[in-house]
Amino acid sequence: MAAVLVAAMVVVLSVSVAESATVEYQFDVATMNVTRLCGSKSIVVVNGQFPGPTVSAREGDLVVVRVVNKAQYNMSIHWHGVRQLRSGWADGPAYITQCPIQPGQSYVYKFTITGQRGTLWWHAHISWLRATVYGPIVILPKLGVPYPFAAPYKEVPLMFGEWWKADTEAVISQALQTGGGPNVSDAFTINGLPGPLYNCSAKDTFKLKVKPGKTYMLRIINAALNDELFFSVAGHPLTIVDVDAVYIKPITVETLLITPGQTTNVLLTAKPSYPGATYYMMAAPYSTAASGTFDNTTVAGILEYEDPGSPSSAGFNKNLPVLRPTLPQINDTSFVSNYTAKLRSLATEEYPAEVPQEVDRRFFFTVGLGTHPCAVNGTCQGPTNDSRFAAAVNNVSFVLPTTALLQSHYTGMSSGVYSSNFPAVPQSPFNYTGTPPNNTNVSNGTRLVVLSYGDAVELVMQGTSILGAESHPFHLHGFNFFVVGQGFGNFDPAKDPAKYNLVDPVERNTVGVPAAGWVAIRFRADNPGVWFMHCHLEVHVSWGLKMAWVVQDGSLPNQKLLPPPSDLPKC
Questions:
Q1: Which of 272, 431, 267, 253 is nearest to 325 (CA)?
Q2: Which intervals hold domain Plastocyanin-like (predicted)?
Q3: Which of 77, 333, 495, 533 has the smallest C-beta neighbourhood within 10 Å, fewest atoms?
Q4: 83: Cβ contacts below 8 Å, ≥ 6 apart
Q5: What is the location of CATH 2.60.40.420 in the chain?
Q6: Looking at domain 361-551, does it have CATH number 2.60.40.420?
Q7: Does domain 19-145 have CATH number 3.40.1550.10?
Q8: Per-residue pLDDT tens for 169-204?
Q9: How many Å apart are CA 366 and CA 393, to the nearest integer?
Q10: Considering the entire predicted model, what is its pTM?
Q11: What gap in Å lies between CA 151 and CA 252, rounded to an integer?
Q12: 149-345: which CATH topology?
C-alpha cells in the first residue's frame, strides 16, 4: 500500500495569478529482480517500476522530486532537457552540479519548467546506471493553450532502451580496467520490453491498440546507452511535430532517426477502417562503427487494431498477417543527414526562433576517439595491445573531479578542482576527416570554458576519423541551441558559414555530430552555473568525451545563480 502512495503524484495548487502548480513526487531508488530474455537479474529502478514513473507537469509548474537512495550505488538524477534557469543545483550530473546521493541518503530536486512544453526525460547521471534508471517527462502547455496542431485522441510514451544480460556496472568497470571496448547489449527494448524478435520474449511485447480513424501522439524517447536508432511503423507514416520539447514545422516520414538523449513527438493516424492485419513498430541501430562494437539487433512492438466485429477486444488475434516496415541500412549516413536537414523550427510569432544573429564567442571543437598509453609494462585491449581507448574534445579527455564543479565555482574555491583554460580551438590542427595522425594519444584534464552572462556563442563540432569516423550525439545541459549548419568533411570557415540557416533552424538539446562531418550550433549563455556537455553514447562518456561550460552571473538579480539548497549532497 505504501508503494502505491509513494508512486502517486501529489499536486498542490499554489495561489498564483499564472495558475502554475507545484507537482511533487517521491522517487525511491532500489534494486529489484526482473526477467528478460530467459534470464533474471537484479536491476536498479525507481518506485519498483521499469521504466520508471512519468513526471507530468504543465509549462510554468514547479516540480519537486524527493529522491531516496535505497540502492547500493551512489545515485544522481538528471532532468534531461529541462532548462534549469538559475537552478543548476537540480540539474543532476554527478560531480558536475552535485555530489552523488550516497546509499541511505536523499536529496530534493526543485525546478520550474520555464518556457518549455513537449517531451523530455529523466535518467541516472552517474556511471552506467541509466541503463535501467529512466522515465518520461511530459510537459503539457499552460492551461487553455492548445497544441499548434490538431489535438490527438490519445498520447502514448514510447521509450527505447537497451538490455544487458550482464550487470552493466561490471561491463563498464571491466572495460575501463582492460582499456578495451565494453561488451555490447543483448537486446533493445520498447518501454522495457524486448518483444517477439528475441528469444522467449513474445510475452514481453509492447502493444499499442488503436481505433480506426483516430490519431495518436507517440512521445518517443531514446534512452539507449550506446545506440542511435531508426524507427518505423509498417503501413503508417509518422508526422513529426516536436523534437526535444520544441515545436517544429510538421514533416511526414516513413522512418525517423533518434539518437540517445533525443525525444521526438509524432502523430500516427490509424487507418479509417479495420484493416485485418497487425503492424510491427520496429527500431534498429544506425552506426558507422566497426562491426561487433554495437548491438546489431532489432526490436519490435505491435500496433493492433480494435476489431469492431470481435466480441472481445482484449485478445490478440494471432491469425492476422503481421506487416513489417523496411528500415534503412545500418550505416546509411545519407539517410541520416537528409532526415536531420528537414527539421525546422516553427518560427512563428507565438513560437519564435530566437537565433543569435551576431556572435560574441566562437569555438571550434574536435570530437572523437583517441588513445591513452598502457600502464608501464602493462598489456591492454585497446586499438593496439600497448594502448587503451580514450575519447576527447579538442584533444582533452575530461576527468571528473572528486568534488562538484558547481560548488567549487559558487564558493570561488576552484583551485585544484578545475582550470578555466579549455582550448577554444584545436592546439594542433590536422586533417580531421582524412588520414589520422600517427600519434593518437590524448591529454587528460578537468578544463572548462568560462562565458560571460548573455554571450552569444557559436560552436562548430568537428568529427574526426581517428579510430574510425562515427556519429556523436552531443548533449548540452542547461540550454537549448539552434543547429545552424551541418556538413561532411572538414569545416571550412571561409565558405560554410555562408550556408547557415539563421531564420528557422531546429532548436534542440542533443544533436548528432555527423560521421566524418561537422555541425554548427548557436546559443545564448543566459543561464548562470556550470553546464556539462558530452556525447550521449555512454561508452564515449566513460572514455572522456565530455567537457563543461561556466556561465558567470549577470548584473541583475534575476541573472544570478540561486544559492545551494541546504540538503545538497556532500562528497
A1: 253
A2: 29-142, 155-306, 427-554
A3: 495
A4: 114, 115, 116, 478, 479, 480, 527
A5: 19-145, 149-345, 361-551
A6: yes
A7: no
A8: 999 999 999 999 999 999 999 999 999 999 999 999
A9: 5
A10: 0.95
A11: 17
A12: Immunoglobulin-like (2.60.40)
188 closest CA partner among 146, 135, 231: 231
112: Cβ contacts below 8 Å, ≥ 6 apart: 20, 60, 61, 62, 63, 85, 87
Query: How many residues make up the chain in this entry?
Result: 571
Return mean pLDDT, the chain.
Answer: 94
Q: How many CB atoms lie within 10 A of CB 14?
A: 11
Identify the pLDDT of residue 375. Answer: 78
Helix residue spans in 111-243 (DSSP H): 168-178
Environment class of residue 537 by beta-carbon count within 10 Å: exposed (0-12), middle (13-18) or buried (19+)? buried
Residue whose entry in the numeric block shows the C-alpha cell 516520414? 253
List, for residues 420-473, the tens digit of each pLDDT value: 999 999 999 999 999 999 999 999 999 999 999 999 999 999 999 999 999 999
Dist CA 197 CA 322 (whole Å): 13
Helix locations, 162-246, DSSP H:
168-178
If you search the block for the grid coordinates 502517486, which residue do you land on? 8
Give the bridge partners for 29, in sequence order.
46, 69
Q: Which cell numbers hold the place of 74?
A: 551512489
Q: How many whole angstroms separate alpha carbon 197 and alpha carbon 19? A: 47
